[in-house]
């Protein structure tokens, strides 16, 4: 298995330029599947805090970087949608959030907001003992006593310390959503229509925005809370650096 990743073939969500060099860092095993961006890419290409994988390893060895509240020691650990990237020593906190076109970007947040993260429910099942296990978009699981109020298209906010659910946002008309894929990736609006498609076809969602609206398939949108957006928040743009 190759240890390299060609830039031209990386997922569209990765914040890297594709035509400047041939290769970039390959993501390691972990959450978010193939959409996960290696941590070193964010540190180097987006934030500019390191120039190489070696410098990234040193920073991680000092427990200077937390992902969803946990120290990370693998510079290739995949980072994806709604992850919280924290630099306690710098007092800097970021949320990974879809930018225009669905490309992942870092949105600056405060320390309090960095204490929890958003997760889209993609599955649920009962486990021995009677609890319900909710599977989130990044592959992590959360246990709840009663799963009847949760749907597989809802969103929850999970506390980074005890992994408990602190908020629940149902997928319904009037809900605030962001498009994370497709031609409308990065756009935010409210659901004004849910068109249930008979058979196996995807449901269609109508979303109203400040500049009009759009339609997309249900799986391309995620319910969010208004605290996950803000006019005073800024996104970091991708810059280039060396791969080694």
From TrEMBL:
Asked if the keyword Cell membrane belongs to this entry, the reply reads no
Q: Name one GO biological process term.
A: translation
Limits of the Small ribosomal subunit protein eS4 central region domain: 91-165
Provide a Gene Ontology MF annotation, just one.
structural constituent of ribosome
List GO terms (cellular component aspect): cytosolic small ribosomal subunit
Q: Where is the Small ribosomal subunit protein eS4 N-terminal domain?
A: 2-33
Keywords tagged on the record? Ribonucleoprotein, Ribosomal protein, RNA-binding, rRNA-binding
Q: Which Pfam families match?
A: Ribosomal_S4e, RS4NT
RNA-binding recorded as keyword:
yes
Instruction: Spell out where the chain crosses the membrane.
Output: none
Task: Identify the PANTHER family for this entry.
Answer: 30S/40S RIBOSOMAL PROTEIN S4, SMALL RIBOSOMAL SUBUNIT PROTEIN ES4
Please state which protein family the record places this protein in: Belongs to the eukaryotic ribosomal protein eS4 family.
Q: What name does this protein carry?
A: Small ribosomal subunit protein eS4
């Amino acid at each position: 298995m190759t240890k390299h990743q060609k830039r031209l073939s990386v997922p569209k969500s990765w914040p890297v330029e594709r035509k400047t060099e041939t290769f970039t860092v390959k993501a390691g095993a972990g959450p978010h599947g193939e959409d996960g961006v290696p941590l070193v890419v964010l540190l180097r290409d987006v934030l500019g805090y390191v120039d190489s994988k070696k410098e990234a390893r040193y920073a991680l060895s000092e427990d200077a970087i937390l992902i969803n509240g946990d120290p990370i020691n693998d510079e290739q650990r995949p980072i994806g949608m709604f992850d919280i990237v924290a630099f306690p020593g710098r007092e800097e906190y970021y949320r990974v959030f879809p930018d225009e076109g669905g490309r992942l970007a870092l949105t600056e947040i405060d320390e309090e907001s960095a204490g929890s993260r958003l997760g889209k429910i993609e599955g649920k099942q009962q486990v021995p003992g009677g609890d319900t296990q909710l599977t989130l978009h990044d592959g992590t699981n959360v246990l709840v006593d009663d799963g009847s109020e949760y749907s597989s298209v809802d969103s929850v906010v999970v506390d980074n310390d005890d992994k408990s659910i602190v908020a629940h946002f149902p997928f319904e008309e009037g809900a605030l959503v962001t498009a994370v894929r497709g031609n409308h990736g990065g756009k935010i609006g409210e659901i004004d229509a849910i068109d249930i498609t008979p058979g196996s076809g995807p449901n269609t969602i109508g979303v109203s925005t400040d500049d009009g609206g759009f339609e997309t398939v249900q799986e391309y949108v995620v319910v969010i809370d208004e605290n996950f957006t803000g006019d005073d928040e800024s996104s970091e743009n991708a810059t280039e650096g060396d791969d080694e």
